[in-house]
C-alpha cells in the first residue's frame, strides 16, 4: 500500500468514526429526551397518587459510607443507587468518600437519564426505566 493510499484509508476511517460517534450521540440524546418525558410523567403521577418522596442519601464509591443530600425524591433501585428527585431530575447517588460530606452532607449533580438503568453492567443489574418508575408508583420498594 502506497503512502497516499494509507493516508486516504486513515482519513476515510477517521471520517467514518466521526459519523458513527455523531450517530451515537444523537441516539443518546433522543433516549435521554424520552426518559425525561417518562420522569416528568412519573413525578406528576407520584404527586397525584400521594407517593411520598423521601430524603435521598448518597453512598461513597466504596459503599462504606452514606451521606445526606439536600435532595428529596424516589429511589429507583433497591440498592438506592439512583433516584428521581422531586425536581424531576435523575440522580446517580454515588460520591467520593469525604470527611466534610460526613459532617455537612454532600451535593449530587443531576445527570441525563437513561432509558435503561445500569445498561452494560452485569447480567441482572440493568433495569428498564419504565419498570423502575412503575415499581415506585406501585409501592414495590423491595425492602
Structure in words:
- There is one protein chain.
- By secondary structure, the protein is α+β, with helices and mostly antiparallel strands.
- It has one domain (3-137).
- It is 43% helix and 21% strand.
- It has 3 helices and 7 strands; from the N terminus they run αβββββαββα.
- It has helices at residues 3-49, 99-104, 129-137, and strands at residues 54-60, 66-75, 82-85, 90-92, 94-95, 116-117, 127-128.
- The strands form 2 sheets. A 5-stranded mixed sheet has the order 4-3-2-1-5. It has a two-stranded antiparallel ribbon with strand order 6-7.
- Helix 1 (3-49) packs parallel to helix 3 (129-137).
- It is elongated and about 70 Å long.
Amino acid at each position: 500500500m502506497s503512502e497516499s493510499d494509507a493516508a486516504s484509508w486513515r482519513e476515510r476511517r477517521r471520517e467514518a468514526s466521526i459519523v458513527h460517534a455523531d450517530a451515537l450521540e444523537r441516539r443518546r440524546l433522543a433516549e435521554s429526551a424520552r426518559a425525561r418525558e417518562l420522569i416528568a410523567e412519573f413525578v406528576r403521577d407520584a404527586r397525584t397518587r400521594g407517593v411520598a418522596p423521601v430524603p435521598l442519601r448518597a453512598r461513597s464509591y466504596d459503599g462504606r459510607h452514606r451521606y445526606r443530600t439536600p435532595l428529596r425524591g424516589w429511589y429507583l433501585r433497591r440498592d438506592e443507587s439512583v433516584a428521581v428527585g422531586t425536581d424531576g431530575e435523575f440522580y446517580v447517588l454515588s460520591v467520593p468518600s469525604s470527611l466534610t460530606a460526613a459532617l455537612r452532607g454532600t451535593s449530587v449533580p443531576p445527570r441525563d437519564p437513561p432509558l435503561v438503568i445500569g445498561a452494560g453492567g452485569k447480567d441482572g443489574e440493568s433495569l428498564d426505566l419504565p419498570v423502575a418508575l412503575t415499581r415506585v408508583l406501585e409501592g414495590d420498594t423491595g425492602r
